[in-house]
């Protein structure tokens, strides 16, 4: 099955967006939507842990995305408004009003992470984890026993 760009992401209930091409499930909102503030790395980890404890959409295996997983979100053909009413390039299945940059998992063995700018598609690799001011968006891998919805 070939998935066109516009069919790739589907809203599945109130809380999640499914990427049918990668079998990833993303939270529809990010920390900027939910907390109305930028977060540093540890606050991002805590935000995701809280989603797990609340079992958002019935799951407790949420995590911060890898850089490779974040690559799958950005597409210049998409347009959604961020908190500041500027265009970010992610599917309109996601909630508007979120942050314009998101953090990835910590780079293994380093005190660094990647940050994806959703306005430009560019990555930064800032020093330190505690001085970041970004948004966090949780992701999980859809299990082999889980049904991936058809186009909704």
Low-confidence stretches: none
Query: In this structure, how is the largest beta sheet organized?
Result: 4 strands, antiparallel
Overall mean confidence score, pLDDT: 89
Element string (H = helix, E = strand): EEEHHHEEEEEE
Large-scale geometry? globular
Spatial sequence of strands, sheet with the most strands: 1-2-3-9
Number of helices: 3
Q: Kindly report how far apart the N and C termini lie.
A: 16 Å
Tell me the strand percentage band: 15-25%
Looking at how many chains there are and whether they match, the oligomeric state comes to: single chain
Total DSSP E strands: 9
Structural class, by secondary structure, is: alpha+beta
Question: Roughly how much helix do the residues carry, as a percent range?
Answer: 10-25%
Radius of gyration using CA atoms only: 15 Å
Notes on the protein architecture:
The chain is α+β, with helices and mostly antiparallel strands and 152 residues long. It has helices at 31-35, 41-54, 67-71, and strands at 9-12, 16-19, 24-27, 80-81, 87-88, 101-106, 113-117, 123-124, 139-141. It has a four-stranded antiparallel sheet, with no helix packed on it. A hairpin with a 5-residue loop joins strand 4 (80-81) and strand 5 (87-88). The model has no long low-confidence stretch (mean pLDDT 89).
